[in-house]
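Subject: Predicted fold for DUF1015 domain-containing protein, 432 residues

User T.R. writes:
Posting the sequence so we have a shared reference for the thread.
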Amino acid sequence: MAEILPLKAWRYSHLLNQPIEELTSPLFDVVSAKQRETLYRNPYNSIHLSVPLGTQPADEAAALLQHWKERGIIVQDALPGIYVYYQYFKLSGEQKEYCRKGFICHIKAYDWNERVLLRHENTIPSAVNDRIDLLAKTELNSSATHGLYTDPEFALEQYMDESIKSPIYETEDYQGVRDVLAVIHDHDVIQKFMDVLRDKQVLLADGHHRYEGSLEYRKRMMAQNPSHTGFEAYNYHLMYLTNTESDDLRILPTHRVLQQIDMSDEEFLQRLGEFFTIIPKEDPVELNEVIVGKKWAFGLYLSGNAYKLRLKPEMHHLIDWEVPQEVKDLDLTVMHYFIFQCVLGIDPEVQRNYSRLSYERNFTTCIRQVDTNASRLALITNEVSMEQVKKVCYSGAIMPQKSTFFYPKVICGFLFSSIKEDEFISAPAACL
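User M.O. replies:
I've generated the structure tokens; pasting them so everyone works from the same file.
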């Protein structure tokens, strides 16, 4: 099934003499405008490779990357390795410290129809095109996507636990998460990682746009190469892999915020009432609490007024999208079908790139956007469970876009992965 490979990572030189926390950055799709302003002030921060500036950002990133290599700002590790990456964190309102354990490696960029790597949500086309252009110009993965494999035996954990005792980096990131990176160079241990994944399917948890960018780039290069073998560097992608069976794998909800709607509040509520039971709430702060554990329940904050929505069960069968039952049963399918399509009249394909719709993980930010009139309404939802993600992936279907927020996010800047042929460890070389 999944073919993974070690890599010789490019990392910041110790001669740069800057703390690693000043060089790391959030992923391109979660970094805020304010964070960008601060990070861009450091000429060596990783954001210059992951979210480059300029009128031709991909060209700017390629030129900067070459400059960094020539000046020794980043240097390539001498030996191939599997990079162990642990993230220690707490959730709001909880005392428990979680530790999400995983490792970073190269993985072949499998086409979706090969059913080796499985996706669970839609992508937004414009974001994919940006990633393809950046990859084509730099031949560099500036950050790892997040994949999931299933191993009830936890066969690799003993090797990761041993490795993490000798960290390369240890720092606290913008999320308040403690990130620790280590590396395994032992050939026999690396082979065990490759052997375990060889029998696995991988579920793509986070980074659908970056992975699809690698996949489309691979297809483009295959078409241009009549001597294609499958071992070329362009076949591979950088991924952080974690075990679905871990108790420390957390998924947080992603709420929906609409800047405006083409109807009055009264008409919107009247049309919602055809499908939902609507209960007014005095305090919007309660909205994320009153829906916890309740199927097909949502919080609505509309023009300063709070409501609890719950789908009338007899309405559920009306969903006529051609998707498996596993997808029809999801809260977000109910939201996108009944609220966005039936009530607001927004076609499913239009929803994917709808300019008036934004996605927000932070509940307080949702409320503030409505209170400040920056948005007309916020829809508050529950998180998706790991079991739901697995069921959808194995069914071959996909969820609505931005269905999951795996927490914490991987950070950018610990390492970079080259897919230049002379900087890449091929499968035959890795098995020597």
